[in-house]
Design brief:
Blueprint (H helix, E strand, L loop, with lengths): L28 H9 L8 H13 L4 H14 L2 H11 L7 H33 L6 H9 L3 H13 L3 H5 L2
């Protein structure tokens, strides 16, 4: 209890932890999602995974918001729970346009990241093979770059530049 000093205006905070969890039967989908994210709801069982997937579906929010909710749940889940959830999301019962778009978005993001990483590796490889010494800052600049056009420019320059500094002069 938090005494505020005002008559009959003391505050009693609601505590949600493994020992003080309200019943999830008939609960708001957001309460179910919250208990899943803080690992109170056991998603390492089919029943728990089914309950959280049903809660996401029951929110009736936009696809973008469902993607956010699903991402939160997957990031907070244990490896075992994440695998169960992913397996269930491929089943006909849970598979829908949202899940398909989620998978498609994830695959495309993975491909894009792969292209960025590969181009950065080629820039660094070209500079190393030509014996052009990079500073730690220059190496980091290439490694964190996500602009494919910039990586292409650096690669082309790396093939003919006299120094590493020439590659990065814009």
């Amino acid at each position: 209890m938090i005494c505020t000093g005002h008559p009959e205006f003391d505050l009693w905070p609601v505590v949600i932890d493994p020992l003080h969890t309200p019943s999830l039967e008939g609960a708001s989908p957001y309460l179910v999602i919250f208990t899943a994210c803080v690992r109170i709801l056991d998603m390492e069982t089919e029943g728990g995974a089914r309950q959280v997937l049903a809660a996401v579906r029951a929110t009736h929010v936009s696809d973008a918001d469902r993607l956010r909710l699903t991402t939160l749940i997957l990031k907070s889940a244990s490896d075992a729970a994440r695998q169960i959830l992913r397996d269930m999301m491929t089943m006909t019962e849970w598979k829908d346009d949202f899940i398909e778009s989620y998978v498609s978005v994830g695959l495309e993001q993975g491909r894009e990241q792969g292209r960025e990483e590969a181009k950065a590796e080629y820039v660094l490889m070209a500079l190393d093979k030509r014996g052009l010494d990079l500073t730690a800052a220059q190496r980091e600049q290439v490694s964190v770059c996500t602009d494919l056009a910039q990586l292409d420019r650096w690669f082309e320059r790396a093939l003919t530049a006299a120094t590493a500094a020439d590659v990065f002069s814009d």
